[in-house]
Design goal:
CATH topology of the largest domain: Four Helix Bundle (Hemerythrin (Met), subunit A)
Distance between the termini: 42 Å
CATH architecture of the largest domain: Up-down Bundle
CATH superfamily of the largest domain: GntR ligand-binding domain-like
Structural class: mainly alpha
Number of strands: 2
Helix content: over 70%
Largest sheet: 2 strands, antiparallel
Order of helices and strands: HHHEEHHHHHHHH
Strand order of the largest sheet: 1-2
Length: 223
């Protein structure tokens, strides 16, 4: 194991074991390196690496702290990596979304409050009768983002949010090239909303699957 990897592993173990908790300040670099039997240079590189993935927060003139370790914060790194994709790899992202989105939608049908559902309806009805492609995609992202948040699962919500970037281009492309895309999107959104509003998770799951699978099948043909 490379010395930097070893340093990362040891700091990680301190966090996993509870020795370091969210918000805690790390001991001084020299003290921590000596305690773990590592060089200061390897410790410094480990801290930099863990800061890049939002596990540690380096505050100049103050010290290094463990972050909140909230799922959304940690999964920012997934969003960053997801942006480095080619057009054909979007299919892989859509396949993952087809697995996760229906699950989130089913949970939303069980867990969203009446106020949440009213907000989802407002998003649905905010779309103009003849929207531009940009408006359609923006509304689509808001609609699905609200459902993901309504699942009550912050990890699932963060994962779906990380998939929004890579699949946004496909949504725009579909809207520009497929004649029925606007109508199909609006019809399926309404069906998803009605399933959630009527507290039918199985129907919500089915419509969400149809919705994402439609984009996936279109992209397969387009590529």
């Amino acid at each position: 194991m490379a010395v930097t990897d070893e340093a990362i592993s040891k700091i990680k173990q301190m966090i996993v074991s509870g020795e370091l908790r969210p918000g805690d300040r790390l001991p001084r670099e020299a003290d921590l390196a000596g305690r773990l039997g590592l060089s200061r240079s390897s410790m410094r590189e480990a801290v930099k690496a863990l800061a890049l993935i939002n596990v540690l927060d380096v505050r100049q003139g103050d010290g290094t702290y463990v972050t909140s370790l909230e799922p959304g914060l940690l999964l920012d790194a997934v969003s960053f990596v997801a942006e480095f994709h080619s057009d054909d790899s979007v299919l892989h992202f859509l396949q993952v979304r087809r697995i996760l989105e229906p699950a989130a939608t089913a949970l939303a049908a069980e867990r969203m409050t009446d106020g949440d559902i009213a907000e989802l309806r407002e998003i649905l009805e905010a779309l103009a009768a003849e929207p531009t492609i940009d408006d359609l995609v923006a509304n689509d992202l808001r609609f699905h983002g609200r459902i993901a948040a309504g699942s009550g699962n912050p990890v699932l919500c963060s994962l779906l949010d990380s998939l929004s970037g890579p699949t946004k281009r496909a949504r725009v492309w579909r809207g520009l090239t497929q004649e029925s895309a606007v109508e199909a999107t609006h019809t399926q959104h309404r069906a998803i909303y009605e399933a959630i509003a009527s507290r039918r998770p199985d129907v919500a799951h089915a419509w969400a699957t149809v919705h994402v699978a439609g984009v996936e099948e279109w992209l397969k043909r387009a590529l």
